[in-house]
Amino acid sequence: MDKFYEKAKALAAQMTVEEKCSQLRYDSPAVERLGIPAYNWWNEGLHGVARAGTATVFPQAIGIAATFDTKLTEQIGEAVSTEARAKYNYASAAGDRDIYKGLTLWSPNVNIFRDPRWGRGHETYGEDPYLTSQLGVSYVRGLQGDGDYLRTAACAKHFAVHSGPEAIRHEFNAEVSDKDLWETYLYAFEKLCQCKTEGFMGAYNRVNGEPACANSRLMEILYDQWGFDGYFVSDCWAVRDFHTTHGFTTTAEESAALAVRSGCDINCGNTYIHLMKALEDGLITEEEIDRAVIKALRTRLRLGMGEKTEFDSIEYDVIDCPEHNELSLKAAQRSMVLLKNDGMLPLDKKALKSIAVIGPNSDSRAALYGNYNGISSEWVTFLEGIRKEFPGRVYYSQGCHLYGDRVENLALPHDRISEAVAAAEHADAVILCLGLDASVEGEEGDTGNSYASGDKVDLRLPESQRILLKAVLDTGKPVTVVIASGSSLNIEDDRANAVLQAWYPGAKGGKALADILFGSVSPSGKLPVTFYRSADRLPDFTDYSMSSRTYRYTRENILYPFGYGLSYSVTAVSDAAYCGGTVRCTVENCGKYDTDEVVQVYCKAKESKNSPTYPKLCGFARTSVPAGKKVCVEVSLSPDCFTEIAPSGERVNDCQEYTLYVGTSQPDEISCSLTGKKPCELQIRL
C-alpha cells in the first residue's frame, strides 16, 4: 500500500461511525478535530472548468475527438486542470468549498457514441473504442499530471454500457453480449484504469439485470481483474434508482448498503444519509464502510489535503488567460470537418464585395459552448468572426428560430424567411449557419427538448431550418452550410456548394470558422462518428448489440464515413512499411495550401471468425505538411491490433494474416469515392 493509503487508514481509525458515513457524501462536511476540511466532490471539467464562473471554454469533447490529436488533448487537459487548481486555491482561501469548486473533475466521458440519437453523445470522443481510449488517456494525463500529487483527479464515466435513451435511463436494462462488452464498451475504461485514472463513475442504467453502480460483474472486472485503486462515485442520484425505479432493492437503506458493499464509495445524491440506519439494521458492516472511507480519504490526500504542494502557487491569472484561449482557438481550427466543397471554399475576400450570414446559429453563443461548460470572458460567434475577417459588406438575418416555427411570438410562422431571402439575394455569397445546440441536444433534465429528454428523434434539421435552407438555396446564390451540432445530421438538400461541420467549437469558434472560410487555415478535422442518412434505418435505440452500428459493423445507410474529412490541399500517402508494431509512411502535400493531415491505420484479419465485420482503427497520427513538401510519419499501432474478442469475451489471436490500410481515411468504398484516393495496403503475416 502507498503512503497515502496508510495515512488515510490512520485518519479513518480516529473517526466515529457517523463521521465516516458523512465522508461518503459528495458534499462531505469537515472533521475539524482531524484537520479535514469540508469538501464537495462534484466538479466538472469536460472541455473547461464548468459551472463555476469564468473559465476558458474549449471545443466540446466530440470536437476535440475530431482533431485526432492526442498531444493537443493532453495540453487541453493540463490547461483545464491548472484553471481548476487556481479556482480551488482562491475559493478555499475564502472558505468557499461549494459545489463545482473542488479538484475531483468528473471527466472524461468515455462512453461509446453507438447511436447518433443519443443527446449526450457530444460529451464523448465518438464511436470508436481505440480513438476514445487514446484521447481519454491523453486527457487524463493532462488533468492529473505526473508529480507526487495529482493536479486534479480525473474520473472515467459512465461505467459502463451507457449511451441512452435518456428518457428511460433510470429504469432501463442494457443487455449486452460478452463480445460487445469487451470489444466495445469496456475497452476505453480498461485503458484509463491502466493509466491510473483516479476516479470511476457508475451509470444510471442496469447492465444485464444489475444496476451499474452496484453491478457485481462490472465491479469484479474493475477491482479484481484491473486492480483499480482509486475512488468510485455514483452518477447523481443513481443509487436512489435502485429502489425507486429499478426495483432492485426495496428501501433506501438497502440501496445504500448494497452500493457501498459493491464498491461504490462516494454517493452523488443523498441516499447515503441512510447508511447509519443500514448499519443498525445489519445490512452493512463498519469494516465495509471503512473500506470506502479509506479510499475516499486516499484520493483527497493524493490531491494534497493537509499538505503544501507545487500547485498552491497557481495564480488566479491563469483562468481564461490568453495562452489558454489561443489553445482553444487551435483546437477549434483543427476540429472542424469539411464534408463537401465544390471549389467554393476558401472564399476569396478580394473577389467578394458582400456576404450574407444567415441562420439561427449565426450569432448564437449557445452554438459555441455545448453542455457542461464554463463561461468565457469573450465569445466570438460565427457572425462576429466573419465580420472581423471580411472587409466588405456583411448582411445578417437570423432566418428562423432554432426549432420553433417563428422568432417573434406574435408573428405568423416563418417570420424571418423573407428577410433571409433578401439578404441572400443582395450578397455575392451566403454562409448559412444551421444545426442544434445543447438546449435541444443533451442530458435528460438539462434541455428544453422535453419530447425526447435531450435525445434526437431523427437525423434531420428542425423543420424551421429545413424551410430556411430551401428558401436560401432557391435564390441560386453560392451557399456554404455551417453545421453546429454534437452529432450526425443530414441536411438532405445536396445543392449547397460546401458543407462544414463545426461541432460546438468553444469560445473562439467564430474566429476559427472565419480562418477556415477565408483560407488562412486549411480544414483538417476528421469525423469521429459515422454520419448516417436516416435514423429510420438504424437498429432500435434500446438495442445495445453493435450489429449494424458504427463503421466497424455496417456499410449501410452511410452519408459520411467515420474518419472522413476534406482539406483545401491534396495529400498523398506512400512508401508505407510495417516494422515491429509501427507503421512508417510518407505524406506529400501536392497542393498549394499548407495543411494538417491525419494518417489513419486500419487493420483487418484475413480469416477470423472473431474479427469485426470491417477493418478497425488501430493507429493514427496528426502531422503538418507544408505545400509542396513531404514529411515522414510514424504511427504506433495498438498493442491489441492483431487480436480479437471471442464470443466468450476473451481476447484471442486466432489469425496469422492481416491487412493494414494506411491512408487519410478508411479503406471503404464511400471514403475512397469522396476523397478520390485509396489507402496503401500492407500484408502482414505474424
Describe this structure in words.
The protein has 686 residues and is an alpha/beta fold. The protein has three domains: 1-26 and 161-300, TIM Barrel; 322-560, Rossmann fold, CATH 3.40.50.1700; 571-685, Immunoglobulin-like. 29% of the residues lie in helices and 18% in strands. The strands form eight sheets. The protein has a six-stranded mixed sheet, sandwiched between helices. It has a four-stranded antiparallel sheet with strand order 20-19-24-25, with no helix packed on it. Helix 1 crosses helix 12, helix 4 packs antiparallel against helix 13 and helix 9 packs across helix 10 (252-262). The longest helix has 24 residues, at 70-93. The model has no long low-confidence stretch (mean pLDDT 97).
- The total of beta strands comes to 25
Largest sheet: 6 strands, mixed
Question: At the fourth CATH level, what is the homologous superfamily of the largest domain?
Answer: Glycoside hydrolase family 3 C-terminal domain
* Number of domain modules: 3
Shape summary: globular
In CATH, what is the class of the largest domain? Alpha Beta
Give the second-level CATH assignment, the architecture of the largest domain: 3-Layer(aba) Sandwich
The number of helical segments is 20
**Strand line-up across the major sheet:** 9-14-13-12-10-11
Percent in strands: 15-25%
- Give the mean pLDDT: 97
Ranges where pLDDT stays below 50 over 5 or more residues in a row are none
Question: Could you tell me how far the N terminus lies from the C terminus, measured between alpha carbons in angstroms?
Answer: 40 Å
In terms of structural class, how would the helical and strand content be classed?
alpha/beta
CATH topology of the largest domain: Rossmann fold
State the helicity in percent bands: 25-40%
Q: What would you call the quaternary organization?
A: single chain
Q: Return Rg in Å.
A: 25 Å
